[in-house]
Automatic annotation (TrEMBL):
Active site: Y50 (proton donor)
Domain of life: Bacteria
Protein family per UniProt: Belongs to the aldo/keto reductase family.
Keyword check for Oxidoreductase: yes
Site for Lowers pKa of active site Tyr, residues: K75
Domain NADP-dependent oxidoreductase as annotated: residue spans: 23-261
Binding positions for substrate per the UniProt entry: H108
InterPro entries, per database record: AKR, Aldo/ket_reductase_CS, NAD(P)_OxRdtase_dom_sf, NADP_OxRdtase_dom
Pfam families: Aldo_ket_red
Entry protein name: Aldo/keto reductase
Length: 275
């Protein structure tokens, strides 16, 4: 099985499918990430705020997988945006991960009421230039936030990692990003289990037609939309199932029927309210 790689706007590549560790218990993280690496995942998405970077680092070290075969993302928490705090935050994350660089460093939330997200982006450019992050991007940034960081620095984020699943596709953000070569990472790709996505008729029908699970159909929809995804599961069978999405393709009609499930409903917070 080969996981496709997408090319970022800075010329580096990213595996289109990875493994997310939001809400993975720090005490269980080494074991669960080890399961994911053994299953074949090579892209891990963590964050300082998840509290489990050490477990991710231990799993990577124990795996023996060459560093250049792995893609590791972590994120700058919004309370560390001001002044030189981002410079200390990346060092803390690298220490916990046991790495001398991450492949992708993201500004986790803009928290616009705090007024520091442009500073955070300026410091992240320094972090990239110092070699501590190969690529840099943002998360939960709306078009007005993207416009501000680009205008201030002339540096366009490589990705915007946003809540995105069939019921909530954020087309204002995705069309803005497409126009500027920013790839979309879809967080909560399965809707975090917060709405009955798997029972939706187009999802269930495609699952039956292809002999796949509803989760596999939804992940396949993301891949065919061009999104980067990193579903989270702590269950070994589901960890493997979520990776087994490259041996089939949705038809154009199936893809369109799932795209039509848009309802405009976030399952999580609005970026302006997280601060
Ligand atoms: P998700 O949509 O991946 O849902 C995860 C849940 O779906 C699991 O807890 C499990 O209950 C269920 N699930 C997983 N695989 C399944 C399967 N095969 N069959 C049935 N149910 C299954 O949501 P998520 O974990 O929130 O998002 C994925 C990743 O995105 C996170 O782990 C994290 O890395 C990232 N994320 C980022 C942000 C951000 O603000 N940048 C926010 C949330 C998540």
């Amino acid at each position: 099985m080969t996981i496709p790689a997408l090319t970022l706007n800075d010329g580096h590549t990213i595996p289109q499918l990875g493994f997310g560790v939001f809400k993975v218990d720090p005490a269980e993280t080494e074991r669960i990430v080890s399961e994911a690496l053994a299953a074949g995942y090579r892209h891990i998405d963590t964050a300082a705020i998840y509290g489990n970077e050490e477990g991710v680092g231990r799993a990577i070290a124990a795996s023996g997988i060459p560093r250049e075969e792995l893609f590791v993302t972590t994120k700058l928490w919004f309370e560390d945006q001001a002044g030189d705090k981002p410079l200390a935050a990346i060092d803390t994350s690298l220490d916990k991960l046991g790495l001398d660089r991450v492949d992708l460093y993201l500004s986790h939330w803009p928290a616009p009421k705090n007024g520091h997200f442009v500073n955070a982006w300026e410091r992240m450019i320094e972090i990239r230039d110092a070699g501590k992050a190969t690529s840099i991007g943002v998360s939960n940034h709306l078009p007005e936030h993207l416009e501000k960081v680009i205008a201030a620095t002339g540096v366009t984020p490589a990705v915007d990692q946003i809540e995105l699943h069939p019921a909530y596709q954020q087309r204002d953000v995705t069309s803005f990003a497409a126009g500027r070569g920013i790839l979309i990472e879809a967080w909560g790709p399965l809707g975090q289990g917060k709405y009955p996505l798997f029972e939706e008729e187009p999802v269930a029908a495609a699952a039956a037609a292809h002999g796949k699970t509803p989760a596999q159909v939804v992940l396949r929809w993301h891949l065919q939309q061009g999104h980067i995804v990193f579903p989270k599961s702590s269950t070994p069978e589901r960890i493997r199932e979520n990776l087994d999405v490259f041996g089939f393709a949705l038809t154009d009609d199936e893809q369109a029927a799932i795209t039509a499930l848009e309802r405009g409903g976030r399952v999580s917070a609005h970026p302006d309210e997280v601060n």
